[in-house]
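Dear all,

This email documents one entry for the complex benchmark we are building for the journal club exercise. For each entry we list the sequence lines for every component of the assembly. Then comes the predicted three-dimensional structure of the complex as a token string, followed by one or two observations. Please use this as the template for your own entries, and keep the labels exactly as they appear.
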Amino acid sequence: MMEGLLDDFLVRALLAGLMVAAVAGPLGAFVVWRRMAYFGDTVSHSALLGVALGVLLGLNLNLMVTLVCVAIAILLVLLQRRQELAADTLLGILAHSALSLGIVAITFIEGLRVDLMAYLFGDILAVGTGDLLSIAIGGAVALLLLIVLWRPLLALTVHEELAQVEGVPVLLVRLGLMLLIALVIAAAMQVVGVLLITALMIIPAASARRFATTPEQMAILAGIIGMLAVGAGLWGSFQYDTPTGPTIVVAAMLGFILVHLLPGRLIPHFGGR
Amino acid sequence: MIRKSPSQPAAAEIDASPLLAARDVSLERAGRVILDQVSVQVRPAEVTVVIGPNGAGKTSLLRVLLGLWKPGRGRVQRRRGLRIGYMPQRLQIEPVLPLSVQRFLTLRQRAPEAVLRERLERVGVPHLLHKPVQSLSGGEMQRVLLARALLNRPNLLVLDEPAQGVDIAGQGEVFKLIDDIRHETGCGVLMVSHDLHLVMAGADAVICLNQHVCCTGRPEEVSRHPEYQRLFPESDMQGIGVYRHDHDHVHDVAGEVHEHHAGCAHGRPSGPGGGGSR
């Protein structure tokens, strides 16, 4: 029964999208709180390099993408410490160099005919059963990591030094966050593509803010809103024959606009207790 | 405004060895000397205040003492079992993070609501418990920060510019609150400030910092010191005298720090605006 269901490419696509959104939303809350949107962009743009390396070395693509993303994230943090360049300049340089390097590397590999568009904007309809499994594993690991890191990460987000004085292992938690972002990027690459992954993280989280009165509410709501966007985007892309990844992002954006058009009185207010 | 020294808490805490001590601590950042052979001590049940002009390295010294930064040279010693309650200088929380005061207080350790309410009551803002932190005024935020610093029953409170962002009228209240609390709990206080008048009045020991330790001692001694007067020419002793209270009968332990005065005659060029011989 289950196998029969998974034979349908639409069902596989929906499952993959829902799983990715369920993790990307809560993680996106942290990306928004910590002002890491551009950071996420930079790291996700480097995912193509991971693909190229994976193909070259004949290794699992998801694994390679995760590794390269972690490496780039750590490199970024180290470079930012030196403070010779402003953070956004540094991120801009790395984001676009990594993307271009990835594209150049992929086209260089002989005998490999890859659909570049699929990597850039996602190819959720091509998700196979094997992909589904690796997305499930990556997503589950990321979700577990997020739950374990939740409290220290939140303390760190509010005030890093205060957290450190109070005994939070700052370096370890930050490394954990890098790993988390990398895992989600690897999982999301097939759904929305490297160019749009950050959108799947920050747009649902930004929409969720309007309804949330606690960090946890915002994270869970972001997951739900992301899943709704995946469903709506998939339907829309089928209906209007548009590319799925961008359609999912458009759905998320429409949701964001809708949420902000809602009159304030329909939204439960903070502090009104 | 300031009560006499602790009677009961002091009896419980007979150990007069320093809570926290830095010995010959030096720190360089990006090729610039920030701290130069700084030695300081923070004693139990005393208020130690670090003063100095902007860029004197006050916050850096605090970071080294807290263990956030490793000193280039020198050592920092903590007394065993030291529990630090830290109140950072400024705390701005992104509006996009939905966080109530209650949640903010329990970020690191969970505590029953009654305890939180009691702590907030102590700092005078019990009504804020369920408010979003972003809605607090500067003074309210400082009080909430103080409440959080008190949560783990610290024996040392470390405060970085505790009256920052508080209006003039509220500043005196914040310092009075800190003074009251340390008398109630018997904890030591280490405070960085540039509010000379308000702070020196309640201090037991003052460290005047300008990369190096210019002078240390009791407030009235430091304020008479030539190097202090050179750094803070506008400060007149009359202002401090208004708040002055009788402290002499308790703190004769502070004896040895006076000796530092002799070492202060070294004429190094220091700080912007220094240099002239006043």
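Observations: The interface with chain A takes residues 63, 66-68, 84, 86, 88, 91, 93-94, 96-100, 103-104, 107-108, 130-132, 135, 158 of chain B (CB under 8 Å). The longest strand of chain B covers residues 32-42.
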